[in-house]
């Protein structure tokens, strides 16, 4: 008797879980897709509308500094080589 009761409860629970999953999973996936679509649209709009700068203004973000070596270009070591084939 206990085995039949267990089987009946197990089948009822599995059937209920299956029914709930059929009803709730489509709504869950739909909400996830809507959120992803909204994020994609907002990123697309941000890319399409770059900030407008007044005409004639220039902005320099980085100015490279020349590194000067302590050895002048006229001095240095010359290494002769022979090409090996």
Automatic annotation (TrEMBL):
Q: Where are the transmembrane segments?
A: 6-25
- What keywords is this UniProt entry annotated with? Membrane, Transmembrane, Transmembrane helix
Provide the residue span(s) of the region labelled Disordered.
40-85
Give yes or no: UniProt keyword Membrane.
Answer: yes
Signal sequence bounds: none
Instruction: Give me the stretches of Low complexity compositional bias.
Output: 40-49
What name appears for this protein in its UniProt entry?
DUF4834 domain-containing protein
Task: Provide the species name.
Answer: Mucilaginibacter defluvii
Q: What is the lineage of its organism?
A: Bacteria, Pseudomonadati, Bacteroidota, Sphingobacteriia, Sphingobacteriales
